[in-house]
Amino acid sequence: MSTTLAIHGGPKVRDTLFPAHVTVGAEEKARVSEVIDSGILSNYLGAPHENFMGGRYVRECEAAWAESISAAHALAFNSNTSGLIAAMGAIGVGPGDEVIVTAYSMSISAIAPLFYGATPIFADVEPDTFCLDPKSVEAAITDRTKAIIIVDIFGQPFNGPAIRALADKHNLKIVEDCAQAPGGHLNGTPTGLLGDIGVFSLNYHKHIHAGEGGIVVTNDDTLAQRMSMLRNHGECVTGAWGVDDLTNMLGHNMRMTEIEAVIATTQLGKLDGLITERLDRVAYFQEQMRGFEPMTMPKVRDGAKHVYYVHACLWDTTCGTDRNAFVDAVKAELPVFELREKEGVKLGAGYVRPIYLLPTFEKRMALQGPANGLTKSWQNYALGLCPVVEDLHFNSLLSHEFIVPSMERSDIDDVVRAFAKVWDARAHLQTPNAA
Ligand SMILES: *Cc1c(COP(=O)(O)O)cnc(C)c1O
To answer: Name one GO molecular function term (predicted).
Structure first.
């Protein structure tokens, strides 16, 4: 093998694209035809009527989802984003309230409270699981705190018992963003049920998908009813249903179509198998990487089933080689995935930018700007707010998706070869302070 790195003009470890990761096929196609033949692609009515809760395929999907994790309620939404916003509305957050959130996730996990005028308060994460740290959450609690949005980031369940104890003590609701962790569990409690409301995603990038979609689960009858009203023009049914608590009960249209529902139901049936395949890829990758000193493989919380949406490793920042330079060089050695060419090589230095560094926060400009006494906490959105998140993002986290089920062992072998090639040639990498 050539030792000239691809980033310096040498040949890549591999040119052929990685195989497309596709989870849909003949079964989904057959069921979509069934819906089209029925002539009804969505069957909601925004009125006090049995179809307020949607058509037969949406209900079938919800029943399957509820059964799969023994939840009292599952509600189909058009996205996880909608589900998180509805969760905030249902809990009754409003101006002046605070919701504790993580900075290291997809943006909606932290901005959902803003849609109701509540303030996101960022807590820091555990340095080895990357989920919100109970100690940091506790330190962020004030008498304005109403809820915590906690993410099972990268597929790892959050510390349910510790966060539950805090929530019970301070009378807070827990919203679990389990978009990245369907099929996971902690000590036998399925993800989705580790908090008061769980929100899954069915967007194209997730373990299973329906194009777009979200499933909200809860064992709380009142929250379930409130979320069903937020999903579908609830103001039209509160009178007929004799609903007393009208706080936030203005409905959106967050409805899933019948087409997405049958795809989601079919995909749910494949979830366990897809997770098993992922875990197999993870085990193989980790076995091949054993002895690769600068990288620590993901830690799995005691008692947890981690489902590896992303394989998030830690780079040893004292190893003498800069993580960013290393990642750039490995990326140059590897191909993109078929069908997802434009998304680039599925390897990253860090994950997403800490959410409080987005322009919305930096320029203090959500809604109509700081209002309703939010000014003080808005001043805190700046570099330095969550040191662990910042260290992970800017220095030590290294994440990749080469563990998706379409990756065969020979494909993973190429990934491992690329890591080894760059490590062996690390003396030729630019260090950040050189030049
Ligand atoms: C994908 C994702 C979302 C958003 O899901 P959508 O269904 O696209 O709205 C939210 N949170 C996390 C952690 C995600 O990974």
So the answer is: pyridoxal phosphate binding
Q: Tell me the percentage of the chain whose pLDDT exceeds 90.
A: 91
Q: Are 201 and 214 in contact (CB under 8 A)?
A: yes
d(CA 65, CA 240): 29
Q: Are 290 and 282 in contact (CB under 8 A)?
A: no
CA angle 231, 234, 238 (to 5 degrees): 150
pLDDT tens digit string along 87-120?
Answer: 999 999 998 899 999 999 999 999 999 999 899 9
Only one residue has tokens 């570099």, namely 383
Please check whether residue 32 is in contact with residue 25, taking contact to mean a CB–CB distance below 8 angstroms.
no
Strand, coil or helix: what is 212? Answer: coil
Of the candidates 337, 28, 82, the residue with the CA atom closest to the CA atom of residue 216: 82
The DSSP secondary-structure symbol of 194 reads S
Whole-number Å distance between alpha carbons of 304 and 279: 13
Q: Which of 151, 139, 143 is nearest to 101 (CA)?
A: 151
| CA 11/CA 2 separation, integer angstroms | 7
CA atoms within 13 A on the CB side of 40: 13
pLDDT for the residue numbered 373 = 47
In this structure, the number of other CB atoms found within 10 A of the CB of residue 391 comes to 15
| Residue 205 Cα to ligand 1 middle (Å) | 9
Backbone φ/ψ region at 98: left (φ over 0), alpha (ψ -120 to 50), beta: beta
Say if ligand 1 is within 6 A of residue 418 CB. no
Q: Mean pLDDT over residues 266-276, rounded?
A: 98
How far, in Å, from the CA of 112 to the mean position of ligand 1? 12
Radius of gyration of the chain measured on its C-alpha atoms: 23
Which two structure tokens, joined as six digits, stand for 301?
């919380």
Chain length of the chain: 435
The yes-or-no verdict on residue 432 having pLDDT over 80 is: no
Contact between residue 287 and residue 395 where contact means Cβ atoms under 8 Å apart: no
Tokens 């395949």 label which residue?
A: 277
Which secondary-structure segment (H or E) carries 277? helix 258-289
**pLDDT value, residue 261:** 98
Whole-number Å distance between alpha carbons of 115 and 279: 37
Q: Of all atoms in ligand 1, which is nearest to the CA of residue 153?
A: 13
86 touches ligand 1 (CB under 6 Å): no
Q: Which two tokens stand for residue 192?
A: 């989705």
pTM: 0.96
Ligand 1, atom 5: nearest CA belongs to which residue? 80
Nearest to 335 by CA among 326, 325, 345: 345
